[in-house]
Design goal:
The protein is mostly beta strands and about 525 residues long. It has 3 helices and 38 strands.
Length: about 525
């Protein structure tokens, strides 16, 4: 590839065009400017391909590579974008191969392919622009050689926030009149072998294109996996006409993750005093005791350097309970009872939360996302005198953690509640009524801490999209809460008595209007509630 596009580096492909292995030591490559570069030791099996490239990581990020491709990180001569020559020769000076190319034979961003490996490489008639849909055949048989069939594949897990899927790319070079068979096997008993009873998916594929994409939801694997364990998966593509079976399979691992938002970031202290410790509190929202060994906590700085806090093996969180990750033992100064807690991790690392704004993520062992928040220092209540040593608490663990209205400053006398129920959650009413506002009336100017009200609404529907607004008694809209989607039976909102512009409202009565739209059909539930702002 002499004239790549974007950030793709230049590269050179070599192939062992013999029936015996070759071992090349002390070989050199020279271009038309007489630049001579020593190549690393190269060992190739019969008909094996390899790629010489200056930056293998960059190369991988720019091209969809087949499984098992041989990449060799090496300096190579700068390939001219007009024309150039390349000569590979042994340490005794004897020439192994030489080529001359002219980019007029091809096009920018498309590799030049040698048509016949057994004919000289210096003739224009033996070169052509790649016909591959991928613009090159990096590491496998050239697209211009249609005499034989080569099937090969690549497969990887693609994580997203809420679901994983496996993306399988099947490449076809050459033609066949026979069907191909795609098989997926999982090593269920972890014995290192793939047997016929471990076949979980098989598809007959006819009329394959040059590049074919198959997408499988991770459930196809995970229903055969125990929780919190790694399993080996083997994917193969078979066709009786395939001349190169050595690239017909790919092996990778899958991990049976917890469902998204099973473990939740529930409280954090990011601005401690010198005799205190920052911490992050997690909440287990499930009915099961969870092993979270291998799960990691990362913030902005930790992600940039690739280092965060990883929970050790056999670390548990009990159902509807808490675990705390603290930076150091200074947390015992305020909370000595945590010394006896098995749900406490002192991480003693360079990992630290930023004091103004930061984001925190919980990462599953396979790199997918479990939960995240992006906090700001101005999430604290406006009327507290200082935010130092005051934690941010989630009003309810079930709220959207990325929404500012889901968080409040801690109201406990110790100013934080690691390992305990959040102080703001304690004021949530335990009621069977559809809607409750507590306190009501409330005073935004109160010095007692009741300077906001907590609105709790229990929608009728299992899957609901909820819209909440505050009106004057004459019907003028003052405040619109963020739209909320709830697969749960409780919606909780915090209101500080201000309008959408952050202006405090005058004392008096206001109307809360909540509309709950059923996501399973078109039904709507509408509820009104009088809220009074006092003096």
């Amino acid at each position: 590839m002499a004239e790549p596009v974007g950030i793709e580096p230049e590269w050179i492909e070599l192939v062992n065009n013999t029936d015996v292995p070759v071992y090349l030591d002390s070989i050199k490559i020279k271009d038309a400017t007489k630049t001579i570069i020593d190549l690393p030791i190269i060992s190739l099996s019969p008909q094996q391909y390899c790629i010489l490239v200056k930056d293998t990581s960059l190369f991988k990020s720019t091209r969809n590579l087949i499984s098992g491709i041989t990449l060799i990180q090496s300096k190579i001569p700068t390939l001219n974008n007009t024309s150039d020559e390349l000569i590979i020769y042994r340490k005794d000076g004897s020439v192994m191969d030489s080529i001359y190319y002219d980019m007029k034979w091809g096009a920018r961003g498309i590799s030049l392919e040698r048509i016949d490996l057994n004919l000289p490489a210096f003739k224009k008639e033996n070169w052509t622009a790649s016909k591959s849909a991928d613009s090159a055949t990096a590491g496998y048989i050239n697209s211009c050689n249609q005499k034989v069939l080569d099937l090969f594949l690549n497969a990887k897990m693609n994580p997203s926030d809420r679901a994983n899927y496996c993306l399988i790319t099947i490449f076809k070079n050459g033609e066949t009149n026979h069907s191909s068979v795609l098989n997926i096997l999982i090593d269920k008993n972890k014995d290192g072998l793939f047997k016929s009873d471990e076949l979980i998916e098989s598809q007959q594929l006819d009329n394959l294109e040059q590049i074919n994409i198959k997408k499988f939801n991770s459930d196809i694997f995970l229903k055969h996996c125990s929780k919190h364990e790694w399993y080996n998966v083997l994917i193969t593509i078979k066709n009786s006409d395939d001349h190169f079976p050595n690239n017909d399979s790919v092996l990778f691992r899958v991990f049976n993750n917890l469902k998204f938002n099973t473990i939740i970031i529930n409280e954090l202290l990011f601005e401690p005093s010198l005799n205190n410790s920052e911490f992050i509190e997690l909440y287990n929202s499930s009915e099961d005791t969870l092993l979270i060994g291998g799960y990691g906590l990362f913030n902005k700085n930790a992600i940039e350097i690739g280092k965060g806090v990883v929970f050790p093996e056999n670390f548990n969180i009990y159902p509807h309970s808490f675990a705390v990750a603290a930076r150091d033992t200074l947390i015992f100064n305020t909370f000595p009872e945590l010394k006896l807690s098995k749900e406490l991790l002192i991480y003693n690392s360079s990992f630290n939360l930023l004091s103004d704004s930061d984001f925190i993520v919980i990462i599953n062992p396979d790199g997918t996302l479990q939960d995240s928040i992006v906090y700001q220092s101005n999430w604290h209540l406006k009327d507290i005198s200082t935010t130092r040593n005051v934690s941010l608490e989630k009003i309810s663990p079930l709220l959207n953690g990325t929404d500012r209205s889901s968080w409040s400053s801690c109201l406990d006398e110790k100013r934080s509640t690691p390992g305990h129920e959040n102080s703001v959650s304690k004021v949530l009413p335990d009621t069977s009524s559809k809607i409750d506002v507590n306190p009501n009336p409330f005073s935004p100017e109160s010095a007692s801490g009741a300077n906001y009200c907590i609105i709790t609404y229990m929608p009728e529907f299992k899957q609901a999209q909820i819209f909440a607004r505050i009106f004057t008694v004459s019907g003028y809209c003052l405040k619109i809460f963020n739209k909320i989607e709830f697969p749960l039976n409780k919606c909780t909102l915090l209101w500080d008595g201000k309008n959408d512009n952050g202006v405090p409202l005058a004392a008096g009565p206001y109307i809360l209007l909540i509309e709950s739209h059923n996501l399973e059909d078109s039904s709507v539930e509408t509820i009104k509630k009088l809220i009074v702002i006092g003096y």
